[in-house]
Amino acid sequence: MTQTGPLEDDRPLRPALLRGWRRRCPNCGSGPLLRGYLKVRESCPVCGEALHHQRADDGPAYMTILIVGHIVGPMVLWAFVKWRPDPLVLTAVFSVATVALSLWLLPRLKGAFVALQWSRRMHGFGAGE
After folding, report:
1. How many distinct structural domains can be found in the chain?
2. Which residue segment(s) compose the domain that 95 sits in?
3. pLDDT per position as a tens digit, 33-62
4. Looking at the domain assignment, is residue 57 inside a domain?
5. pLDDT tens across 66-80, in order?
6. How is residue 126 annotated by DSSP?
7. Do 19 and 25 form a contact (C-beta atoms < 8 A)?
8. Long-range contact pairs involving 59-64 (C-beta distance under 8 Å, separation at least 24)
9. Transmembrane region positions (predicted)?
């Protein structure tokens, strides 16, 4: 038997994911979710929501690799076919682009993963309610 009703409606997925993407608390949207680059806080300093339940593990890294690969791969092919640059130049430019995009995406995807878990009450989020 599935549980529907107030428990699922009080934590809508879309706003939680957007707050997580902005690296904010999925509950209030005001407090910072991360302490440092990737370390998730034990609790929100604004609303007190416990965040230590999160189990993002390797999910954000896998998603970052998937997204960056699907963006940079076709761009490398397009740039090579269009301009035929020296392979060393192509490698240098796209290596920098790959690292920059990965570093930008990783904390945002980690925030979205934590927000998804919070919204769906996974791994102990909402267990005390």
Report:
1. 1
2. 13-119
3. 999 999 999 999 999 999 999 999 999 999
4. yes
5. 999 999 999 999 999
6. T
7. yes
8. 59/109, 59/113, 60/106, 60/109, 60/110, 60/112, 60/113, 61/106, 63/105, 63/109, 63/113, 64/102, 64/105, 64/106, 64/109
9. 61-81, 87-106
Amino acid at 87: P
**Mean pLDDT of all residues in the chain?**
93
> Does 51 fall in a domain?
yes
In sequence order, what are the residues at sequence separation of 6 or more whose Cβ sits closer than 8 angstroms to the Cβ of residue 6? none
For residue 7, tell me if it sits in a domain. Answer: no
Please tell me the distance from the alpha carbon of residue 31 to that of residue 43, in angstroms, as a whole number: 9
pLDDT at 18 over 90: yes
Question: Rounded to 5 degrees, what are φ and ψ at 53?
Answer: -75, -20
Tell me the C-alpha distance between 34 and 108, whole Å: 10
Measured CA distances, 10 to 5, 19, 100 (Å): 9, 15, 36
User: Is position 126 within any domain?
Assistant: no
Residue 97 token pair: 């682009």
Is the pLDDT at 3 greater than 80? The verdict is: no
pTM, to two decimals: 0.89
